[in-house]
Design a protein that fits this description.
The structure is a homohexamer. By secondary structure, chain A is mainly α. In chain A, 81% of the residues lie in helices and 0% in strands. Chain A has 6 helices and no strands. In chain A, helix 3 (51-65) packs antiparallel against helix 4. In chain A, 60% of the residues are buried. Chains in contact: A-B, A-C, A-D, A-E, A-F, B-C, B-D, B-E, B-F, C-D, C-E, C-F, D-E, D-F, E-F.
Chain lengths: 119, 119, 119, 119, 119, 119
């Protein structure tokens, strides 16, 4: 593993949980490698935004794009590592209806509700 | 104007600036009415998320969906009312490359850079 | 339940069926509340468009955005409450290929075919 | 010109206006050829849906996908050939907020308002 | 079957495999008819691009739009008929991260990995 | 400039042209840096796909996502550096109608036609 991977891995695990990183590796070790080195090591380490702000931004983006498997891991990581609580996640999904409408929000809330049962 | 509109209007102005609300009214008074009553009065008043967090979520969503005229007003409102500073906006757009790729991020950064020259 | 919810509920049930409204409530009572008050009570009651026209517009939008769980409920409601028949739904999905291509249309037709077996 | 093109051309002109068809030809004669033969001749001639219903579906789809140049021509054709009036177009765009949110609706309404000044 | 369908069918089978064409027919004979006549007969027969180039373009488009059932059939057809090999498909999906981000790429790679086990 | 940037820069210039890379730098030096290091140095150097195949994939993706400023630079780079000729670009855009419909294809063809006048 590269030095950059080692630098980004803790941030990836903070946001996706250890199980989330393992699942991503299982799905594609090459893509995991790139996203940890490029995304988490190079971008998430810029202190202009704290990790809670980055989590909010990521969830907003994934609700908007409808990429639900990733949304699930990012909500799980948020709750597991106390970056956000359930009420914050719900308020965020509700706010998104203004920008992308109700169907995307309902689909996201279903994912969130499933994760909520684990906590 | 309805009571709900009066309740939501200050939050709309906090996020879009007074000129942004005026521009939205000019574009469609009906849509402005609905978004202030439904969005800002009904949803942005839930204290689960503070207004800075809501701003971050909105910008992330608009960068993701590529709705650039609205992105422009939301960045302008963020800087005008000190919800975010320029470095935070830039770090947020850069983070979005992970989730939606570089073309959307470049287009958003161009909008942001134009707004930055006003401040 | 608010007065507005009571006003919008029959229109929500006309379009989604009673089971559809119940499923939406199960998924998120907050989102159902907002969509009934904001969407069905405030917007669907404007007589400029009749309910069949609104149904056509909704299905066209959901086929375009690929939000399939909502498409399923809206097709079911259309057939259940005689807003559209099967041939109209099929012709609408086929027309959409011009505007969004074949993959989205095939995915929508699969959803429609499943609902068709219930009627 | 093929027989199929001759068959589809009046329907293309009904929906886009003669100027709209000319503009499309100017932009790409090959694409115009294909869309008239495949879209208007093969699909719009199915009587399951009348031309007003097809117009509503098309506008809903274009508002949803944010393809604004085509939206402009389709609204112009709707008003020019009395398929829809201004109030119907406005009500349709407002309804779309439920399914795709306010930014797309504002952008569409701006296009519509510009076309409205011609009539 | 029309002459045009007969002309396009071998190209449809080259790209989707015989089972893919059968599955599409099962899903919607009307849509299959149109896509074979309009897409494969009218467009894929233009020699400006060879069939491998067209396959690359299709997979890039489907990864970008996230239309995963079609992506699956197009990857299967690529491997079955030697238009692309596994390494090429993987490199293509990885390249797409630049243009659309990691979530879409991960979802596509999962589809690809499932198809890879058949070969 | 980092070693990785130096490694990726010639590939970025092959695909976007020198003027395209300069324009991207002008728009955002940070984003250019990341896309050259992560995209062109790390991903485009994998020999599984040759540069013409990568160009085809990129144009297909940008036509699909409707990111037109980037499409313009990528078509210009393709013609400038003989990765594709005009007929190939046109055939590719026409093929995309199958997967994403005519509006996106018309918008892309307009961009392409403008670039074609330079060559």
């Amino acid at each position: 593993m590269s030095e950059k991977f080692e630098q980004g891995k803790p941030l990836a695990e903070l946001h996706l949980g250890e199980a989330g990183v393992a699942a991503a590796k299982d799905s594609s070790p090459e893509l995991l490698n790139f996203v940890v080195e490029h995304g988490f090591a190079d971008m998430y380490t810029d202190d202009s935004l704290d990790q809670k702000s980055r989590k909010i931004a990521t969830i907003a983006s994934l609700v908007t794009s409808g990429r639900l498997p990733q949304l699930e891991w990012h909500i799980r990581g948020a709750l597991e590592n106390d970056l956000m609580n359930k009420d914050e996640v719900k308020a965020l999904i509700i706010q998104m209806t203004i920008y992308i409408g109700y169907p995307s929000a309902f689909n996201a809330m279903k994912v969130a509700n499933n994760v909520f049962t684990e906590f």
